[in-house]
Specification:
With 466 residues, the protein is α/β, with parallel strands linked by helices. The chain is built from 17 helices and 12 strands. Helix 10 (214-226) links the parallel strand 5 (196-202) and strand 6. Helix 7 (127-138) crosses helix 8 and helix 15 packs parallel to helix 17. The termini are far apart.
């Protein structure tokens, strides 16, 4: 087409460039911090045979411990067979069967005060786009939400890029990252430079791999009600609360220690004491926000998904949970943008309808997570690396102040050394000595690869000290 124009016309065309909306121009100026490291890691991805010197990814929260079990289930011809009906469009928010099965699953494990049914559930292509749907339905462009910091960095991108709503971090209490006072919430609300419409939290918490107490959750909810705010609680790791699930399902004649790692390395390291962290705070049993006597249930909404608890990141299946018919009606109008494929819907129905298999999978997954957590922490203890004790999820927060260099510089050196983990800046930590130089490291990976990753971490730290 450009051949029809002379050189002057072409020059003017190139100079003017492509046309973009103001929204797109704003987004282009913004940068998702983790992308700097993710791009480097993905362009040099580790493989034990084809690229053994590549970068091992311990930054992206993907559970790789159950590939054989989950693949065996979903690749069963009885489950994965595509029918003529599945060649047609399905219901935007998921089939009635799937939403009913999800409600039954969450009723069994989350114990909601008001039992969930299919009318409370909508299914879409991942929690990130569904958080944006909440944003479209609950915020106006330019609004803000309170979020306890440091916080999962995806909250900012997921809701800002589409709905144009912005996070306002709330300071935690000294000595406990999962304790937020009413005074801190009030201060953040008063000092906000945008209209605040809600509070968004992750429980279990990301990046700390710990659960909020029931009292703290109610504090958020009561504060929100007094100020006319809504609450969105992301419970995507709610069935990976391994400390609770394992301790509550100890087999007869066994102790909790039975489920820890007993490899020779762990046996050697087990007696080494952990360096205490000054931000440990209290360990709490996981409590779903929906199991509480909520002060404002119609303005308390949730997220959950299959990516973490069922190791299905790539299938992209998230759900919204709400008791509000008004909110559900609003987001369902947008659900045509986030539909899941009908064959995936069918696979999930078959999987969840086998309750015995599903509940055994959840228990066995948590056994594996508990074992790997003990393996990781025994190794960290042996190398004098402090960390915040975990109880949920696939990761913990480790303290790398011993490197005594700038956090970003350390992050780049770790990548050069063949390991990718997530720095505190990705979680919007405060720019001070105490909150920087913490990293989130995940452990839902086979022990051999985890050990190789840790060896690389220790080598980088040793090279810096020398």
């Amino acid at each position: 087409m450009l051949g029809l124009y002379n050189k002057k016309d072409i020059k003017n065309y190139i100079k003017k460039g492509s046309k973009l909306s103001k929204r797109a121009l704003e987004i282009q100026k913004e940068e998702f911090f983790l992308s700097k490291g993710i791009v480097i890691a993905r362009n040099n991805k580790y493989h034990p045979e084809s690229n053994p010197n590549g970068i091992i990814n311990l930054g992206t929260a993907e559970n790789k411990l159950n590939n054989a079990e989950i693949l065996s289930k979903i690749n069963d011809p009885k489950v994965s067979c595509i029918t003529a009906e599945q060649l047609l469009y399905g219901p935007n928010p998921g089939s009635d069967k799937l939403r009913s099965e999800i409600a039954k699953l969450l009723n069994r494990h989350f114990h909601p005060k008001i039992a969930l049914n299919k009318e409370n559930i909508c299914v879409g292509n991942g929690c990130a786009p569904l958080l944006n749907l909440y944003g479209e339905a609950l915020f106006d462009a330019g609004d803000a939400f309170l979020v306890p910091g440091p916080f999962y960095g995806g909250f900012e991108a997921d809701i800002k890029y589409g709905a144009r709503a912005y996070p306002i971090p709330v300071q935690h209490e000294e000595g406990d990252y999962l304790k937020v006072s009413e005074a801190s919430l009030e201060k953040a609300l008063i000092n906000a430079n945008r209209p605040v419409k809600g509070i968004i939290i992750s429980n279990p918490n990301n990046p700390f791999g710990r659960s909020y107490s029931a009292e703290q959750l109610l504090l958020f909810c009561n504060f929100a009600k007094r100020h006319g705010l809504f609450v969105i609680c992301d419970e995507i790791y709610g069935l990976s609360t391994w400390k609770n699930i394992v301790s509550e399902n100890i087999e007869e004649g066994k102790s909790i220690e039975y489920y820890e790692c007993h490899c020779s390395q762990c046996q050697d390291n087990k007696s080494i004491k952990r360096i205490e962290s000054n931000i440990d705070g209290e360990s709490n049993k996981f409590t779903s926000i929906f199991s509480l006597d909520l002060p404002d249930p119609l303005n308390t909404h949730g997220l959950w998904g299959f990516s973490k608890d069922f190791c299905l990141n790539g299938l992209r299946i998230g759900i919204t949970i709400s008791y509000s018919k008004t909110v559900i009606s609003a987001i369902q109008k947008l659900y045509f943008l986030t539909c899941i494929p009908t064959n995936i819907d069918n696979i999930l129905v078959h999987m969840l309808s086998d309750e015995k298999w599903t509940d055994n999978f959840i228990l066995n997954n948590n056994h594996k997570l508990y074992k790997n957590y003990s393996h990781l922490t025994n190794s960290l203890n042996a190398h004098d690396i402090p960390y915040v004790k975990g109880d949920s999820g696939f990761f913990i927060y480790i303290d790398l102040h011993q490197a005594r260099i700038d956090e970003y510089e350390l992050w780049m050196k770790l990548l050069e050394g063949g390991i990718y983990i997530s720095p505190s800046q990705a979680f919007f930590s405060e720019n001070n000595y105490f909150e920087r130089n913490w990293f989130r490291i995940y452990f839902a990976i086979e022990a051999k690869e985890l050990d190789l990753s840790l060896d690389r971490l220790y080598k980088v730290l040793k090279s810096i000290k020398n």
